[in-house]
Design goal:
alpha/beta, 7 strands, globular
């Protein structure tokens, strides 16, 4: 897997800006049915095209299985697609997600890492099901699989849907608030590899490691500084400055933090399903800052349309 640029000369002339301020047409955090999204990779590409996007990355959880299908449809629409994945890991016992942007595709080390993550996700799913049995979700693994509708790896949203279907909670939001959110009974992180290990897999593949939605982990600013330092020591180079909708003041402060650490900034909607609060390309406006866009990274120059 690699960058899948369009052969359409007009679309290829679209070159991304070298600043984050005012950026449009790009979304580097999207999910499909290859993980916990509700649209097939092809249908997601259709929606991205309909919304006027020009550069996208498919970042399904712990897999690149949907990239080939998405690439075929992106070529049809004249979209530039970057192979990617959102990889699970932990740092100091805190579950983190690292987006792997993969302009050269995978490597043997990353492929082996994806197998490790698939196994870890299976163990995690079984543990979540076991824990949720204690709150009334009988046969939770089978119920979550039924909600997923396929044999793809299960995620917390599948268990949330199972809790709703079983009448344990009235809606998905309540499922996360009571049982599946950070620190709750169904929030299982024990099986994820360490941050440095996952970043190493990405670097081995010639990819760029990006901390996904750094404001969502419940860290203090000081702890986030420490996490960024450990991430950089491991070879990480970027973080999402904007993920969906964010408070402007908080985003300004995060920009200062990324600038201090010398990290590139990425943007993405973290889109999962139509009808929700976010659509592909929907993000809060990035503030004016000195943070360089991740697509200015030398490894992503082709994807950005710079050559």
């Amino acid at each position: 897997m690699s960058v899948f640029p369009t052969a359409d000369p007009e679309a290829r002339s679209t070159v991304l800006s070298d600043t984050l301020e005012g950026i449009r047409g790009i979304d580097l955090h999207l999910h499909s049915t290859a993980s916990d999204g509700k649209l097939s990779p092809a249908s997601l590409a259709d929606l991205c095209h309909a919304r006027g996007l020009t550069h996208v990355a498919l970042t399904d959880h712990d897999t690149i299985d949907g990239v080939e299908e998405a690439a075929e449809r992106c070529r049809h629409h004249g979209l530039s697609l970057l192979a990617a994945a959102e990889l699970s890991c932990q740092w100091r016992g805190i579950g983190l997600h690292i987006v792997a942007l993969l302009p050269q595709g995978t490597s043997s080390a990353l492929d082996a890492g994806l197998e490790v993550l698939a196994s870890a996700r299976d163990l995690r799913s079984r543990e979540i099901a076991h824990r949720l049995e204690k709150v009334g979700l009988d046969d939770g693994l089978a119920r979550a699989r039924q909600e997923a509708g396929s044999e793809r790896p299960l995620g917390r949203p599948d268990f949330a849907a199972a809790l709703v279907a079983a009448g344990v909670v009235p809606d998905v939001k309540t499922a996360f608030k009571r049982y599946l959110g950070a620190g709750k009974r169904g929030d299982v992180k024990m099986h994820w590899p360490e941050l440095a290990t996952v970043v190493g897999w990405i670097r081995d593949a010639g990819g760029v490691a990006v901390v996904a939605h750094p404001l969502r982990y419940g860290m203090t600013r000081r702890k986030r500084d420490l996490m960024f330092a450990a991430f950089i020591d491991a070879g990480g180079e970027a973080a999402e400055l904007v993920s969906g909708y964010q408070n402007p003041d908080t985003t300004h402060d995060l920009a200062r933090q990324l600038d201090f650490h010398g990290l590139y900034g990425s943007v993405g909607s973290d889109f999962h399903y139509p009808g929700g609060p976010l659509s592909p390309g929907t993000i809060s406006p990035p503030p004016r800052s000195h943070v360089r866009p991740v697509w200015c990274h030398p490894a992503l120059r082709r994807f950005a349309g710079g050559e």
